[in-house]
Amino acid sequence: MGKVSIGVNMEFVRHADKSFEWGVEKAAELGFEYVEPMVHWGRELLSEAGYFHSVSMLDDPYRIRRACEKAGVKLSGLSAHSPLGKPEISVEYLKQAVRFAAECGAPVVNTDEGPKAAWTSEDIDFALMHYTLQEVAFVAELRGVLIGLEPHQQYSKHPDGLDRIWGLVQSPVIGINFDTGNAYLAGQDEIAWLELVLDRLVHLHAKDISAQQSAQERGKVTGTAVGCACGDGVVDWAKVIGLCRKAPRDIVLSVECGTIDQAERSIRHLRSLL
Q1: For 90, how many CA atoms within 13 A lie in the half-sphere containing its CB?
Q2: Can you tell me the distance from the alpha carbon of 84 to that of 131, in angstroms, rounded to the nearest whole number?
Q3: How far, in Å, CA of 107 to CA of 197, rounded?
Q4: Distance from C-alpha of 44 to C-alpha of 51, rounded to nearest angstrom
Q5: pLDDT digit string (tens) for 153-180?
Q6: Which domains are seen in the chain, by residue range?
Q7: Proportion of the chain above pLDDT 70, given as a percent
Q8: CB 225, CB 234: distance < 8 Å
Q9: How far apart are CA 260 and CA 16, in angstroms?
């Protein structure tokens, strides 16, 4: 039986125009036990100026470790989304993310299939994803870092598609980072789907979807960047938590919302259920 804890994806401060370190301190102030930083390659103007939360993988990984230790929070994983079907982008990006995670102390690197190239067929896409995942798995296995595959794009918008991607490479480090909101918006029963992947679950994006967004987009999209506050939308969090408690691993519910206010309401609601 797994322990369920509450964390927050650093996207909750995306509109605060503050640095990564500021965001970590804010997460701790709100009471989150875990954070999920977003990393990028190269240099990005707003991040370098301290106006955005993403961290460059050209920085010292101990920047993340020190910020978390200072604030008294832990790492649930790294958000390192990169299109698996575009190996010219994703192979080196994800390998670097795995090495970065191992040094800063993040147990999981989360990614998804990403948008496909316009010219490729389904067979080509799966061959490319197979290549990417195998290259990344070689690096992750040596370091004990898990890869969390998230439902988000054209092939992973239903359980069979996500299972097919997960099954491309037989490796103990490849698991599922389930996103409740993406699953729901894709037109699926997110609770039933979560139950199907429970034995492979390594991380969970706690994303709720408002009734308004549901009415406008459900069945028309494969996911969304962030959701509303947990408890303000359509997802049954009591059922999500109940299932996660049956998972073989400890699971962090990493809240994925777009504002500090939503994060505060989310942790209040999830704590009431835990």
Answers
A1: 27
A2: 9
A3: 19
A4: 10
A5: 999 999 999 999 999 999 999 999 999 9
A6: 4-273 (3.20.20.150)
A7: 100
A8: no
A9: 8
Amino acid at 11: E
Question: What is the per-residue pLDDT across 113-141, written as a single tens digit (0 to 9) for each?
Answer: 999 999 999 999 999 999 999 999 999 99
Q: Which residues contact 72 (CB under 8 A, 6 or more apart)?
A: 28
Q: Annotate 65-86 with b (16+ C-beta within 10 A) or e (fewer).
A: eebbeebebbbbbbbbbbbbbb
Question: What's the whole-number mean pLDDT along residues 98-111?
Answer: 98
* DSSP letters for 143-157: HT-EEEEE--SSSTT
CB 252 within 8 A of CB 197: no
- DSSP assignment letter at 8: E
Residue 27 CA to residue 75 CA, distance in Å, equals 12
Q: Is 189 helix (H, G, I), strand (E, B) or coil?
A: coil
Q: Which residue has the tokens 């729901």?
A: 184
Residue 197: is it exposed, middle or buried by C-beta count within 10 angstroms (0-12/13-18/19+)?
A: buried
